[in-house]
Design brief:
Length: 756
């Protein structure tokens, strides 16, 4: 550039230079100064133009540099805005110089509100601020922060200083939301803890079924160490160790559903087999080109299997004797019947009931009863063959099953041997408390196929035969006969009808007058239970009352009788020519109820019947079963004003020692004595003795079954107080109750509520 301006100046000075050679320079010449000025001007212009050109180039370079810086800042800003993690900048004083939108969102504060402020100047100070106070060192901390939406997140914050030639310009910080990572780590920690401490054995296998990892529980189950198991194929998945069909089903289900559960057999290091409940799951690969894994969970079910076996044994065997119970017995009889059908042989069922076993429990207690049962079991086992089945089916009931070439005679002989086995007394206890019990056995026999073709028929018919032996000839063997079934069927039908009668209100009460012998004045009536069946007609109390006792139906029936009789007695109070006292028979089961006295109190209060208008009739044998308890019970009734009469006095065993202590008011002479007063002197003497005994004890006497004027006259002459019978009136409904002049009539059995 300078050269372009210097050329014209040299051309202007050229003539002058040539002239210098001829003459000296004239300094005063205008030409000289004009030329010099031109040369200087040209040089100055060239210099100015050069400077301008240089400035222009510098401006271009500056503009390019600013553009580059602006682009870099734009890229940096875009980068910061694109970073999902919060980023912030602080100067050397700790004041914010900038941040990205993620940081604004994290704190819930706009960048404009942050600029120039420190953490302690913010309204919502960040929770991590206290841990990042040092501005000259790189720091890192974990902190939980609550976002504006209320969600708490875990942030991993890193803060690093920015230096320029050892001068700290400030810090830059980056926060990362590690909440999902923390949750994943927590889950992983829990999974590892479960894996290590789980009671079930866990193993991880590759696609080749080789073990890659196991937990300690699996080592405990198999007996192998962790190192011994790694790289091996589990034994329970080997063809030789496991059933091939089970393995085929296993892998088919895993392939179809991704999971299989079932029972397998593992082998312990000691060689013992271990039943396990296995769950095998296919874990798909996490990457496209990864391999699947198999996760197996094993539970040792040895104890469960053992418990199942014990429970099965308990469910099929008697707890005390260890003999088969009724369920297992039925199965064995069914099997023997099937064999007999194929081989055309017989099956004999002997149903055994021990005679006198209840006395063992009553006298010596249940522990002694258990000892007697154990000894009885051993005796029966010693008598029978190994092929015979002995079972306990009740408290004191046993069944023996014989199969093969048996007949009635052979079975009867075995029954006799079973009875003979009980002849020897059984000793129970030690020392002074040692007791001797001699028990009998009543046995019923039923044969297949003559007496039944099914298990139920054989057991039912054998039991019916046993009941016959117990009723008619104890300590014997009775073979089944068809008529026994008819009796049992009749009893069953009557029991069913009795239940329906109680529900359908088929019962009614009739009242028989009781008069004073001295003047014939009505003093009371006895309530007698009657049952008229819709199709069978009237049914005798002698037939259904014992059945009600056996089935327990006497409790609700007896309560109904008491309520009905007391309600009627309350209606008759104060009415002329009506009974002012009603006698009601109560059964043994009723008196044994723990709340019997409370029941009487409730009925009297509910019906409005005075206590003095109710008389309860009980048998003397019932009172003497437990005399002390009877005295206490009757005493409580007497304290309430309820009268108590001993029914059928003289027909059983009487204890005068207890009788004088019994709080009773009346003795009732049984009808069997009254009916023979005129024909048997001994009977008359007994009746006279009863009257004298009652007088000496200060008791009233009532004679039942008075049918004739001669009987009434004899009783009156001997000092009997009251009488009851057809001579004074038949049993009648409450609405028809009236006392008519005595009319002789043909006697019929008195139907009344009698205790069993």
């Amino acid at each position: 550039m300078y050269r372009s301006f210097a050329v014209p100046a040299l051309l202007l000075l050229a003539p002058t230079a040539r002239a210098d050679t001829a003459a000296a320079v004239d300094l005063h010449s205008p030409v000289f100064w004009l030329g010099a000025f031109c040369v200087v001007g040209a040089l100055a212009m060239g210099l100015v133009l050069g400077v301008l050109r240089m400035q222009r180039q510098r401006l271009r370079q500056r503009r390019a540099e600013l553009l580059r810086v602006r682009r870099e800042r734009t890229k940096l800003s875009a980068l910061l805005n694109a970073i999902p993690d919060p980023v912030f900048f602080k100067d050397a004083t700790g004041a914010y110089e900038g941040c990205n939108p993620a940081f604004e969102q994290c704190l819930g504060v706009a960048e404009g509100e942050l600029l120039g402020r420190r953490d302690d100047q913010l309204q919502n100070r960040p929770e991590w601020a206290g841990a990042l106070r040092d501005m000259h060192a790189t720091q890192r901390t974990l902190s939980w922060a609550q976002q504006p939406n209320g969600e708490r997140v875990c942030l991993d914050i890193v803060q690093a200083p920015v230096f320029d030639e050892d001068q700290c310009l400030g810090v830059v910080g980056v926060a990362r939301d590690v909440t999902p990572l923390r949750e994943a780590m927590s889950k992983l920690h829990r999974a590892v803890t479960v894996f290590e401490h789980c009671g079930e054995g866990i193993m991880v296998m590759g696609t080749d079924l080789r073990i890659e990892d196991v937990n300690p529980a699996l080592c405990a189950i198999t007996g192998y160490s962790h190192e011994e198991l790694l790289g091996t194929v589990p034994r329970y998945l080997r063809d030789g160790e496991q059933d091939a069909d089970v393995l085929k089903t296993l892998w088919t289900e895993v392939a179809a559903k991704g999971k299989w559960s079932g029972e397998l057999v593992e082998r312990h290091k000691s060689g013992n087999t271990i039943p396990v409940w296995a769950t095998i799951v296919c874990v798909p690969p996490t990457e496209a080109d990864g391999d699947a894994h198999y996760l197996s969970v094993l539970t040792d079910i040895s104890r469960i299997k053992q418990t199942e076996a014990e429970l099965l044994h308990q469910s099929l065997h008697d707890r005390l004797t260890g003999l088969p119970n009724l369920s297992l017995l039925r199965d064995r009889i069914s099997r023997q019947v099937g064999i007999a059908q194929r081989n055309h042989t017989c099956v004999a069922v002997l149903y055994i009931d021990l005679d006198g076993f209840r006395e063992v429990n009553d006298i010596a207690g249940h522990a002694a009863g258990d000892a007697v049962l154990l000894e009885t079991t051993q005796r029966f086992i010693n008598v029978t063959r190994a092929s015979d089945a002995v079972a306990r089916v009740g408290a004191d009931e046993f069944v023996v099953v014989l199969s093969g070439l048996v007949d009635e005679e052979t079975s009867m002989r075995l029954g006799d041997r079973l009875i003979q086995a009980m002849d020897t007394p059984i000793l129970v206890g030690e020392g002074e408390e040692r007791r001797r019990f001699t028990l009998g056995a009543s046995i019923g026999l039923a044969l297949y196929p003559a007496d039944g073709t099914s298990v139920d028929e054989l057991l039912r018919n054998a039991e019916a035969a046993m009941c016959r032996a117990k009723e008619h000839a104890r300590n014997t063997v009775q073979a089944y006969r068809p008529e026994l079934t008819h009796a049992v069927q009749k009893r069953f039908e009557l029991t069913h009808a009795l239940r329906l009668a109680n529900e359908a209100a088929q019962f009614r009460l009739e009242y028989q007058p009781q008069v004073r012998l001295s003047d014939g004045v009505l003093i009371g009536a006895e309530a007698l239970l009657r049952w008229r069946h819709p199709s069978r007609g009237p049914i005798s109390p002698a037939e259904f009352i014992p059945l009600a006792e056996d089935t327990g139906l006497i409790i609700p029936i007896g309560r109904w009788v008491l309520e009905t009789a007391c309600r009627q007695a309350a209606r008759w109070q104060g009415q002329p020519d009506k009974p002012q006292q009603v006698a009601v028979n109560v059964s043994a089961r009723q008196l044994r109820q723990p709340d019997f006295v409370e029941t009487i109190d409730y009925i009297l209060a509910e019906t409005g019947c005075p206590a003095r208008a109710l008389e309860l009739e009980v048998t003397e044998s019932l009172l003497l079963e437990d005399a002390e308890a009877a005295i206490e019970l009757l005493g409580r009734l007497s304290q309430r004003g309820v009268r108590v009469a001993i029914d059928d006095f003289g027909t059983g065993y009487s204890s005068l020692a207890y009788l004088k202590r019994m709080p009773v008011q009346t003795l009732k002479i049984d009808r069997s004595f009254v009916s023979e007063l005129g024909s048997d002197a001994n009977v008359a003497a007994i009746a006279r003795t009863v009257i004298v005994l009652a007088r000496s004890l200060g008791l009233d006497v009532l004679a039942e079954g008075v049918e004739t004027a001669e009987q009434a006259a004899w009783l009156k002459r001997e000092g009997c107080d009251w009488a009851q019978g057809w001579f004074y009136g038949r049993p009648m409904a409450a609405d028809d109750f009236v006392v008519t002049p005595p009319v002789p009539a043909e006697p019929e059995p008195q139907l009344q509520l009698l205790p069993a």
